[in-house]
Amino acid sequence: MLGNLQADMSRQGVNTSQKGCCSACDKPIVGQVITALGKTWHPEHFTCTHCSQELGTRNFFERDGKPYCEADYHNLFSPRCAYCNGPILDKCVTALEKTWHMEHFFCAQCGKQFGEDGFHEREGKPYCREDYFDMFAPKCGACNRPIMDNYISALNSQWHPDCFVCRDCKKAVQGTTFYAVEGKPVCPKCIGADDEGDDE
């Protein structure tokens, strides 16, 4: 029967020579053919491996020699954003052993995207420098602001070097003798301990 059909079509000027066998159904292809992945297919048999939708001439992706439509390929194989769990189709950030959409990698506290300062991590969450130190850094015994750099440890507290001053006269006591009054440093002069040496 196929032979008669081919002969009838040839008489009418339609070329019916076989263009290979379909990779899906293993039958000869006469007429339109799709060549993809090094194989030939009937157009209706070149379908997404996952959803079976015809791919025709649309974009497709290959994985392990099998065709996938764009949506299924990204849903099945693209890395996932740690924030929204959506597939990442373009640029991404890899940090904290996770992947993120560029716009979804931001401070867990204030929501600001990270710039050149980078980020700090606490319990698997990223924070900007300001929020990290504000939330987790030890606070100065005098001004109660976060200690971000050098500090002095004294009187069961930590102090900014510029804040470690006499409670009364506000002069630096770092590297000198001082007294502790109500958890604050007081210099010998302000406590009156200098007077004894001056009387002699």
From TrEMBL:
The keyword Protease does not apply. Signal peptide: none annotated. GO terms for molecular function: metal ion binding. Residues 20-79, 80-137, 138-197 form the LIM zinc-binding domain. GO terms for cellular component: cytoskeleton; focal adhesion. Its main location: other. PROSITE patterns: LIM_DOMAIN_1, LIM_DOMAIN_2. SMART domains: LIM (SM00132). Pfam families: LIM. It is found in: Cell junction, Focal adhesion; Cytoplasm, Cytoskeleton. Keywords: Cell junction, Cytoplasm, Cytoskeleton, LIM domain, Metal-binding, Repeat, Zinc. PANTHER family: PAXILLIN, ISOFORM F (PTHR24216:SF8), PAXILLIN-RELATED (PTHR24216). This is LIM zinc-binding domain-containing protein. It comes from Cryptolaemus montrouzieri. The lineage of its organism: Eukaryota, Metazoa, Ecdysozoa, Arthropoda, Hexapoda.
